[in-house]
Design brief:
1 helix, mainly alpha, rod-shaped
Amino acid sequence: MPLMGMRIANLPLTAKLHDSHGVGMFLHRIKGCISQSTANIESATGRQAEAGAEIKALEKAIEENSAALEEATEMRAKELASFSAEYRMQKCLGLERWNL
């Protein structure tokens, strides 16, 4: 049982503390809570590290994709300019090959 979700009412505080069985059960339950909390912390730390690595990989992929998009956009602009120039030349010469 996680320590955060455990309420004081769940602990055997009503046990007679001079009774060795009551004290033993109390300590056993507290140790179990501590062990579970430690395991939860370790698990969360591992998931946090994994998420951090995934974030870095995604940021790198975004940078690469943004650069590729920019390069493709520049290339398409050059192709459009070339096409437009060729089209205007064809139109001026009366040799329209494209019906635009």
